Amino acid sequence: MAYTPLRLLSFEEFIQQYGDQSRYELANGEIIDMEPTGPHEAVAGKVASKVSLEIDRQNLPFLIPKSCILRPSGDEATARRPDVIVLDEAALMNEPYWQQEPVIVRGESVKMVVEVVSTNWENDYARKVEEYALMGIAEYWIIDFRGLGGIRFIGDPKQPTFTVNQRVGKLYEPQQFRLGENIISPLFPHINLRLDDVLPR
Hints:
Number of helices: 4
Mean pLDDT: 92
Low-confidence stretches: none
InterPro entries: Nuclease_put_TT1808, Restrct_endonuc-II-like, Uma2
Pfam families: Uma2
Number of strands: 10
Protein name: Putative restriction endonuclease domain-containing protein
Structural class: alpha+beta
Domain Putative restriction endonuclease: 11-194
C-alpha cells in the first residue's frame, strides 16, 4: 500500500479556507477538528459570562470577542482558537489582521486565554502552555471540569481541576484549584469565582 502524505496548509490558507469555521484549529500545518460537546460549550460560556461581569464591574478596557484566532508564532503554520480570550481593546490598533479578520499575532493584545479541557487534553496542558507562554500571554486558565488530564498535570486521584497559569519570565507557574475553592487570578484579583460556578448542570 502506498502512503500519501497529508497536504499541510499555511496559516494564510487556513484563514481563507477555515477562518469562519470555529471548530477547526491548525497545528504545524495540520487541520485539527476540535469536536466540541454541549457540556464543553456550557463551561466556556459560563466562564466568559463570569469574566465579562468582572470586566464591567472594574470598568476595564478589555473585550471578549465571539470568535478569535491566535497565531502563536509568525513562522509556524499554527492557528489556535481559545475557548475564551480576553483582549486589550486599545492594543488592537497594532494588530495587522484585525481590521479584516479576528486574528491576533501580538501577545500584548491578549490579557488572558481560557481552554476547557476535552479528550485531547495533552494540547491544553503541554503544547498550548508552551505556545501561549512564548507568545507572551500573561495568564492562561485551564478548566478540566471532568478531570481528564494526566496525573502529572492534575494529580492522583484525578479530579476536576481549575489551573491558573501565570507567566513568570518566559514560563508559566501553575496554581491549581479544586471544587469549593475560590479561584485566585492575578488579572482579576477580586473575581468571585469557583470551579463549581462553571460546571455544566
